Amino acid sequence: MENYNEAFFRAKTNKRASITWVLLLIVACIYYGIKVGTGTLTPGYYAAFAIVGWAVYIVGQALLFIKGMDFKPYKWIVGLGYLAFYSVIAWTALDQISYVFILPLISILILYKDPKFIRTMMWITLFVLISSNAYKGLAKGMMDYMASPECALQLVIVIGCYVCTNMAIVDTFCVMVFSARQPMCCQTRFTVAVP
Is 171 or 104 the better-scoring residue by pLDDT? Predict the structure, then answer.
């Protein structure tokens, strides 16, 4: 690893995160656009989430253009920006599947290979998920849904995804950085007694 160039890899990661983010925005716009077309959602709702999503994305792109593709804080713009976009969906969409839009964020976070960043995003995501489900149950009369196994399943799926992502990144980091001296975090976690 003599020729490791952190700026090069950060720029590459930022570009990949940016592409993934714009594709997710397009998918969400199409999905909810269809719901507006069928009368399931109001155009005002669609405008709110589209404005938040695209505005944060455009600000992030402008900063990348001005500061350079290796702009280090971009990962926070992606993480918090996508969470703001997801929050609008989670708190205002009265469907039971809006949580699936958080799963793509996890795929973006994996690109940065930063366990502390992932844990921070996990706690913010859990706040959004729990508060949006509480809002749907208490303010919108969806208490049956809030007490349902599906609601608990959402929470378990999101936590499970974050935990597995974090474990994979920590293990990968240990193998890459400490492969020669085999540190404690990379040693086999299970031992088998041989008779």
Answer: 104
How many Å apart are CA 117 and CA 110, to the nearest integer?
Answer: 10
Burial of residue 79, with CB atoms counted within 10 A of its CB: 0-12 exposed, 13-18 middle, 19 or more buried: buried
pLDDT top residue among 144 and 127: 127
Coil, strand or helix: which one is 181? coil
Amino acid identity, position 181? R
CA distances from 53 to 115, 149, 183 (A): 25, 30, 42
List the alpha helices (DSSP H) in 38-100: 43-67, 74-92
Give whole-number Cα distances, 41 to 71, 79, 178, in Å. 37, 26, 52
**Distance between CA atoms of residues 192 and 49, nearest Å:** 52
> What pLDDT, on a 0 to 100 scale, did the predictor assign at position 110?
81
Q: 179 Cβ partners below 8 Å, 6+ apart? A: 186
List Cβ neighbours of 166 (8 Å cut-off, separation of 6 or more): 115, 118, 119, 122
Give the dihedral of Cα atoms 50, 56, 57, 60; nearest 10 deg. Answer: 170
